[in-house]
Amino acid sequence: MTDPTLPPPAEPATANRRQPGIIRRVVDFPLVLIVLGLVAIILAVMLVGMIVNGLLATSHPLGVLIANCAVAAAIPFVWRDFKRWVERVPHRDFSRSGAAMELGGGLMLGAGLFALAAGLVILVGDYQISGIRAPADTQWAELLGMAIMSGVLEETLFRALIFHQLERLAGSWFALAVTSLLFGLAHLTNDGATLSAAAALVVEAGVLLGAAYMLTGRLWLAIGIHTAWNFTQGWVFSIPVSGGEPPIGLFISRSTGPDWLSGGAFGLEASLVALGVSTVAGLTLLRLAVRRGRIVPFGWLPGSAQTKL
């Protein structure tokens, strides 16, 4: 028999916890957050680009560099607010903890991997260097700005947004497979792109950059690899970056071999040599991610359980 002098037993904490409404549950669904995130980032990039273009002479190389850096600098702030106000979860994507080491390591790794691939092609005689330009005579500003902006923007979209939400939906391996495929398909509209070039990007870039994000839970390593790879390819070796006209870089060079070795008009990243070098690096990072317990198992993790440690 209950003692009437004692206070009634406390109800479980979960009983008083307010359950999210239907709108909140819809917004929290990973595929909805992907759409909202894409809209937020693209609109922010367009707005910052319009403001910078109105203030600067972006036809000048330094103007191009400043404009691209301004867009890249705005993305972390937009992403922070999106996570805070829309997704309503903490995040570590642009955390300052470990940023210098991870970004620096990524820059060295990206430059080293591309230099290794280019060096192997030089050894077999497919890529020939006939001279070196003065840095002032190169497109260093345009190429640096493009590398920084594409590194920050694409890694935020493909890794922090799409990879993370697909990982919530169906686990790390599903997220890695889908984002790698999307990354390759996204470059099919580039000049000189072919199905084989897109397939090469799926494996070499999609897996490598996805593994870098899985390993650290932050974007700095992936951004460093992405930025340094593009800049080394375009500025140092004067090789088209994912298609287009050959840039005016440091080396005066030309390719004489078959497309499977040189990458053809798309650039060296579409070659079997770059594919092999990047795949080895990507699998190495994946192995480290597995050892550190960074793999999220299959299954949707709703609510706060989605936060990556």
From TrEMBL:
One of its GO terms (biological process) is proteolysis. It comes from the Bacteria. GO terms for molecular function: endopeptidase activity; metallopeptidase activity. The chain crosses the membrane at residues 26-56, 62-79, 100-123, 143-162, 169-188, 194-212, 219-240, 260-286. Residues 139-231 form the CAAX prenyl protease 2/Lysostaphin resistance protein A-like domain. Keywords: Hydrolase, Membrane, Metalloprotease, Protease, Transmembrane, Transmembrane helix. InterPro entries: Rce1/LyrA-like_dom (IPR003675). Pfam families: Rce1-like. The keyword Protease applies. PANTHER family: MEMBRANE-ASSOCIATED PROTEASE-RELATED, PROTEASE. This is CPBP family intramembrane metalloprotease. It comes from Croceibacterium xixiisoli. The lineage of its organism: Bacteria, Pseudomonadati, Pseudomonadota, Alphaproteobacteria, Sphingomonadales.
